[in-house]
Amino acid sequence: MNREKDIATALPSLNDIREVYFIGIGGIGMSAIARYFHSRGVKVSGYDKTPTDLTADLEKEGIGVHFTEDLSLVPAQPDLVVYTPAIPAEHKELVHFREAGAKVVKRSDVLQVISRDSFNICVAGTHGKTTISTMIAHILRHSGYGCNAFLGGIAVNYDTNFWSSENATTVIEADEYDRSFLKLDPDIAVISSMDPDHLDIYGDEKTMQDAFIGFGNKIRPGGLLIHKFGLKRMKEIGAERKWSYSVSNDAADVHATGVRIDEGGYQFNVNVNGGLVSGINLRVGGMHNVENAVAAVAVAYSLEIEPAQISAAVSAFRGVRRRFEYVIPPEKQKEGGYIYPVMIDDYAHHPEELRALLQSAKRLFPQRKLTVIFQPHLFTRTRDLAEGFAEVLGIADEVVLLPIYPARELPIEGVSSEMVLEKIDKSNKHLVQRAELEQWMGRHAKSLNKEFGEVIITAGAGDIDKLVQPLKKIIEQA
After folding, report:
1. What is the DSSP code string of 192-231?
2. Of 219, 262, 444, 472, which has the maximum CB count within 10 A?
3. For residue range 15-54, what is the model confidence (pLDDT) as tens digits?
4. What's the predicted TM-score (pTM) here?
């Protein structure tokens, strides 16, 4: 029996758990598990490094959270301690519970047990997985099909990343970091992308792809693989059924047709193996989100949800927080011909995510100047993908880089935002310290393009989201 099965077998029965403590409770995946236990009447509390909007929401829901490594604040004998792999091994509280003999497990171990007896829809990919999984869960909820959802983002429609249902169907964002997704057993697996990422974990691209192949090969008998058209190595996955999807290539089993731009969103139909889901009106920007919707529609169609219900659900979808999120929407405009800037916030932290984001903004607003403010995430990712970041950021008309957000990492000598900045083939580029960004925006706002308008994008997986509302206020006042 392998280590993963050993851990899962050793976990207490979910029905016997009365108290759970989370180390890293503010993480998007961790908070979903915390909400799951809280919804079952279990006492839940936890630690995180810094307060965020998400930890504030958890506290409002009755979950205790503290922000210092303080053993006097932890529960005496929790039935279960859950930690995120991003927590360092020497963390005081983690060391304490291990030495005390507590049941200490990773988030992925808990997800494995929770989903053991359910019909699982697991969405993987180095990008796209949050939006696709949230769209799928939304369609199932909106249509009345019902599902449990463990998501890697906050669904705008419901303002949460977790919900439950009497239907034993579970939608899970399958995270490749730390190989967590290999603990899941999908009935339907979606693979959206396998671009190089997390090379600090995998070492090289092939090893990372090997993990995705392993994930696909965990599909249960009779299950379905839905993968992006053109992905390499899908033949190595032995699923009994396979569907490919594409935003436009009609050689794919599932593809969009008749796509047209409509006021910052899109209208289109989806052909599913000869069937048709028509009249979709997606009110979320970005052609990559049309492609994400195609994947979600494929899953819903495979579950035999009525096409009219699928179309209505996608049309009612309001997006995922920080995924092409309109902070200042395109319909906002002043009198007298002054065109208000559009402001978009996005979690993009990989070159291909940035490419999809910037190209989509260019297509939606072709006449507007495009300014991107980007905060690189992790020293290792910046080191490994600096050339890609520089090339993609060059799509914008003006680039502002913030210093690297280190997250779980220590600095690496010679690795900084400067190494990306100097590679960008553009003169209109700047490196601005995080504390000085508001002052920079104050100057920039005075020279916004008022004739054709401007699109301002904030992007990154660090703490740039905390600056979004202050920057919005500066723009609006200007």
Report:
1. ----S--HHHHSSHHHHHHHHHHHHTTPPTT-EEEEETT-
2. 219
3. 899 999 999 999 999 999 999 999 999 999 999 998 988 9
4. 0.85
